Amino acid sequence: MNFKGKIALVTGGGRGIGRAIAHSLALYGADVIVADINEQDIGIVKQELDKSEQTVKALHLDVSDQNSVDKAVAQSIEQFGRIDVLINNAGVIGGPNWEKRSKADDSDWNSTYDVNTHGIGRMIESVGPHMKSNDYGRIVNIASVAGRIGSVNSVPYAASKAAAISLTRSYAQLYAPDGITVNCIAPGLVWTKMWERIAVRRTTALTDDRGMSTRESFDAYVAQTTPLGRPQRPTDIANAVAFLASDLASGITGQTLNVDGGLTMD
Ligand SMILES: NC(=O)c1ccc[n+]([C@@H]2O[C@H](COP(=O)([O-])OP(=O)(O)OC[C@H]3O[C@@H](n4cnc5c(N)ncnc54)[C@H](O)[C@@H]3O)[C@@H](O)[C@H]2O)c1
């Protein structure tokens, strides 16, 4: 895969899966804008990537805030002239202290929708017109297996991710006449800060895994659910993102690819 000369913006690029995506795109030659709400983390990823040959920008971005989205996109266009590749990876599992609750509250419904669903919409609405005027664009959204099969323990999160799969199809239709592709990845189980929160909840507020450590809880869930018998690594997700964002995938749009060790098979 070759991203030489391409400009890629990765939301939630400060850690976890987003950090792996930023690394992967830089490895294949893209200049990368690492955008995240967490200023400290974007500084760290920029330092890591500054060792590569690529130009890297660390950018503060809150995808739940329209002003922040507009400002971040304007700053990126000002510095790089365009955005060729947009990866909508930023996500939350619930509101503040979600892990301490056994039932979702309003903050969980609102924050998951605002970041995981509307956050993607804000980014595409802001970046899409620039891609259109440049006659080029690749967009990849990050959903979840939860958006495919639901989740009894994370109903708002699963709903927000199902909506991300749906909006992928809508934007793919909207931008198809301009040759801009919009696709989606549904990751399985990846050990990141997000899953640490899930495991804290499973071992405390819920009864599922009382007495286990957070990592034991995660490993047990992987063993129960994932045919390949191992968690997904952030790089597993990043590799699939790079493919869908590359010109090798120029004939694919509106699709959601499960990268989940066989957890879902449809
Ligand atoms: N870890 C998993 O098992 C898993 C499974 C399926 C899908 N996902 C999805 O993968 C994506 C990355 O998750 P992760 O596991 O790396 O989690 P993570 O919590 O480690 O990373 C999420 C990143 O998004 C950023 N972020 C959160 N709110 C933001 C906002 N309003 N604006 C900008 N950035 C924001 C965070 O600061 C963080 O850097 C998410 O969309 C998540 O839902 C993860």
Number of strands: 7
**Helix and strand succession?**
EHEHEHEHEHHEHHHE
Total number of distinct structural domains: 1
The helical percent reads 40-55%
Number of helices: 9
Name of the CATH superfamily: NAD(P)-binding Rossmann-like Domain
Q: Beta-strand level of the residues, as a percent range?
A: 5-15%
Distance between the termini: 26 Å
- Biggest pleated sheet: 7 strands, parallel
**What overall form do the CA principal axes indicate?**
globular
Description:
The protein contains nine helices and seven strands; from the N terminus they run βαβαβαβαβααβαααβ. With 266 residues, it is α/β, with parallel strands linked by helices. It has a single domain (7-189, 233-259), classed as NAD(P)-binding Rossmann-like Domain (Rossmann fold, 3-Layer(aba) Sandwich), CATH 3.40.50. Strand 4, helix 4 and strand 5 form a beta-alpha-beta unit. Helix 3 packs parallel to helix 4, helix 4 (106-134) packs parallel to helix 6 and helix 7 (193-203) packs across helix 8. The chain is globular, with a radius of gyration of 18 Å. The two termini are 26 Å apart. The structure holds nicotinamide-adenine-dinucleotide (NAD). The site of nicotinamide-adenine-dinucleotide has 29 residues, from helix 1 and helix 7.
